[in-house]
Design goal:
Helix content: 55-70%
Shape: flat
Oligomer: single chain
Largest sheet: none
Number of helices: 4
Structural class: mainly alpha
Radius of gyration: 16 Å
Length: 72
Amino acid sequence: METEIVIDDARKKIKNILIDCKDDQIIPFSTTEAQTIQDYGGLVAPKYQIVLNKIKRLIPEAHVMSILKGSK
């Protein structure tokens, strides 16, 4: 219950700063949860994977390809 209060407060503060921000752009996650998953052999916590997938969608594929070609 306390966690939800903190998350709701954070959402309100984010939306006050980023007026066009949508609820699905705000992904609450726990660094403790992520560390525990990694400690037990997991690669990426599920909510971190959501963040990574959203970041990947923001980067145009052509830009990623030029980065890969430039790094060879």
